Amino acid sequence: MYTVGIVGATGYTGVVLMSLLLTHPDAKINLITSNTYRGRKISDIFPLFKGRLEEVLQPTDEDHRGKCDVYFLCLPHGTSMAKASELYDGKAVIIDLSADFRFEDIEMYEKSYVPHTVAELVPDAVFGLPELYRTFIEGKKLIGNPGCYPTSAILALYPLIKNDKLIGDIFIDSKSGVSGAGREGKIGSLFCEVSEGFRAYNVGVHRHEPEIQKEVNKYVQLKISFVPHLVPMSRGILTTVYSRLSELAKTADIIALFRDTYRNEHFVRIMDENIYPDTRFVRFSNYCDIGLKVLDDGRIIIISTIDNLVKGASGQALQNMNVALGLDERAGLDAVPQYP
């Protein structure tokens, strides 16, 4: 049984992680932290844990070295790296849900975020997208969990860029539920600001664009354009990717390519022809659903859906833990999507 700590447990990602870990056969939560709610029982803050998890929240800024086999860092970008440096001992597995260890190139990270204060750890980290980097994650002690938008976009693009099937620019249009902005109180996330509205934001400057671009560039030198949108729902991401195939093909042929690429990936589901993903059918699950259509002139449209808090964050983090420790990759993650 592996002991697990969640550092910064009272945000959305921390709550989802605790909910998933309570079903895990090989993991036990023995540390949860929060500076805001230190000293209080987690079940007093979130009654959903009543009778299931009665741990008291410890201060995040205390030293928690040596207490756990696995640490999940659910902290803001720029502050997570210091905690990772404190906990990193080459023994415990550290999975960072911030962006601090997602970039191999520190300059690229710093252009979008803040100066990196523990650059010496970056070479020890791996980008934690199991469907692409499973063999690198196995046995790793420092894992940078991907962003939610990049997860949905990269999985939609991977079979095509891996096989050099695209030519020309790539346009990525993504819509996310409000929980993607986090649990902290912000005017733009208030009910009256979001309800009955639909808007684009951070056009051309969103920090997930370089994260997607650097993964695309590992296979092909094609430029991406990424535009995120906020939709008035609590959770879910729907990403639509537009590009052009390097040679004409039928929709059925490209679906077959996707199915072959992901044939051993439990959490990626490829839709039949003329069937397209819906965020309702991945809610509360670690699945990524992908559908696509090829037009007669070679243009291609790929649509993917994920739950931004599960496959886009906490579920993927747990999947990374399972891979790093050599456990059943589905452990704690095989919940059935909920409908409606």
User: What is the correct CATH architecture of the largest domain?
Assistant: 2-Layer Sandwich
Radius of gyration computed on alpha carbons = 20 Å
The percent of residues in helical segments reads 25-40%
- Give me the oligomer status: single chain
For the biggest sheet, the summary is: 7 strands, mixed
Mean pLDDT: 96
Give the amount of beta strand, in percent: 15-25%
- Number of domains in the coordinates? 2
Classification by helices and strands: alpha/beta
Q: What's this, in brief?
A:
With 340 residues, this protein is of the alpha/beta class. Helix content is 27%, strand content 21%. The strands form two sheets. The chain has a seven-stranded mixed sheet.
Q: Which structural traits does this protein have?
A:
single chain, 340 residues, alpha/beta, Rossmann fold, Dihydrodipicolinate Reductase, domain 2, 2 domains, 7-stranded mixed beta sheet, 6-stranded parallel beta sheet, 10 helices, 27% helix, globular
